Every structure is written in structure tokens, then in C-alpha cells.
Amino acid sequence: MRLHRFIGKYDLSKTEIEILDAKIIRQIKDVLRLKKGEKIILSDGQDQEAEVSLNLISANKITGTVNEVKKTANDKSFVRARKVNLYLAILKKENFELAVQKTVEAGVHRIIPIITERTIKTGLNFPRLEKIMIEASEQSGRNVTSVLSPIFSFKEALLDGANNQEKIIFHPTGIIYAPSTNKNAESISIFIGPEGGFTENEIREAKKAGYTVASLGSLILRGETAAIIATYRTAKGI
């Protein structure tokens, strides 16, 4: 039976852990209706997780005994994919939130919202997006939470992305994407444009900055769809 997972700032070195977050308490007590003696997984959001047996469930506090702590970075069964840094043009609210949710489930390392020449919406609800990211990590069984960066301009994003070992900007005019031959690359930058796509000027700037222009195929994909597919394929090298 799969145990329910919760991510937070837990000190997993202790033998007993307190949960004081009202949202998690409500989830355990009222939604999942877990009982004393049942087990959950707590993750510190970095590289450790613990199996915890519930001892006390009240309206304002939950306590549990730590049974086992596992450091996922040292777990041979845990396959660590390349760190994908997704530079995603801001989309409409629902579309951007869907892209964030699903790319976290697909294993994205970092999401950087960007403003491009054709970006229409420029504001984001960061607390809501961070909540979506934590829930997506918990749902997909990830122990490491993805990072949400501040909004960058396109030029700032190109400079930031240049720090990674591979750099790809996705555009319908590019070559069909194929897994990199650089098997030692540990980090990758991928750029996904807005509803209207990147402009020719932005593509030229990306090329000058050393980015490969690649396509996900002959179909024209929505921004959120392209972000999900590109994240998964680049992370797994497929």
C-alpha cells in the first residue's frame, strides 16, 4: 500500500516529529481520515524522507514516531535525471498553472517565468504556484521540491540559462529534438514561448547566445503542452 507523502521543513533527525501546519493537519485528519498507528511519509524537501507512525491526531497538532529515515541521494534505486531548468513564457492563469503542476510531476528542477515580446499576461500569483508545486511533488512521490524563480525578461533568461551545460530553445522552425550526445551533461536550459511563439528576433538572440533551436515535431503545440513534453523528454534523455 502506498503511503501518503507530505513535504515540509521537518527535522528528520528527531525520533518524534510534530506537524503544526494547519493545511496538512486538515488533510490528514479530515480529508484522508488517517488514524493513530497509521503511517505516512514526511520529506524535508531536500534529499531525505522518513516513514512516520502517527501517535496523536488533534485539531491543532499531529505527532508521530520516526521509524526509518532514508537519504534518497544515496538510494541506488533512485534514478536522478538531469536538472531541467524550464524558462517558460507567462501564459494565461489556468494554462500556466497546469504547466507548473505537470512539469513538477515530470521532474523539472527549476521553473523561471519569462516575459517575451509576445507575452500578454505579466503577473503571477507566486504563493498559489508554490502551493501547486508542493502538492505536485507530494502526489508524484518526489522528495525534492522544484524551485520557482522570480520573473525574468527574455534577455535576462538567456544569460541565466547560459550557465547550464545544454541550452535549447523550442520553436517550430528548429531541428527535430533528439537526445543529446553529451551524456555527462547534468543541467539543461529549455525555453518555451507564449501563445504566439518566439519572434524571429528572439530566435536570433538565442542562437547568438549559443542555444540550439529545436522542434518537438510537426504539430503546433500549446505552450503548456510543449512545456510538459519538453521537460519530460529532456530530463529523461528520450
Can you offer a commentary on this structure?
The chain is of the alpha/beta class and 238 residues long. The chain folds into two domains: 5-73, Hypothetical PUA domain-like, domain 1 (Ribosomal Protein L25, Chain P); 83-236, SPOUT methyltransferase, trefoil knot domain (Alpha/beta knot, 3-Layer(aba) Sandwich), CATH 3.40.1280.10. 29% of the residues lie in helices and 29% in strands. The protein is built from six helices and twelve strands. Strands 6, 7, 8, 9, 10, 11 and 12 form a seven-stranded parallel β-sheet that branches. Strands 1-3-4-5-2 form a five-stranded mixed β-sheet. Helix 2 links the parallel strand 6 (83-89) and strand 7 (110-115). Helix 2 packs parallel to helix 6. The protein is elongated and about 60 Å long. The model is unreliable at 74-79 (pLDDT under 50).
In short:
The chain is an alpha/beta fold. The chain is built from six helices and twelve strands.
Q: What is the count of structural domains?
A: 2
Model regions low in confidence, pLDDT < 50 over at least 5 residues: 74-79
CATH topology of the largest domain: Alpha/beta knot
Strand tally = 12
Order of helices and strands: EEHEEEEHEHEEHEEHEH
The CATH homologous superfamily of the largest domain is termed SPOUT methyltransferase, trefoil knot domain
What features would you highlight for this structure?
238 residues, alpha/beta, Ribosomal Protein L25, Chain P, Alpha/beta knot, 2 domains, 12 strands, elongated
Detail the topology: elements first, then pairings.
Blueprint: E1 5-7, E2 16-19, H1 22-31, E3 39-43, E4 48-57, E5 62-71, E6 83-89, H2 93-105, E7 110-115, H3 126-140, E8 147-148, E9 152-153, H4 154-161, E10 166-176, E11 187-192, H5 200-208, E12 212-215, H6 223-236
Parallel strand pairs: 1-3, 6-7, 6-11, 7-8, 7-9, 10-11, 10-12
Antiparallel strand pairs: 2-5, 3-4, 4-5
Helix pairs in contact: 2-3, 2-6
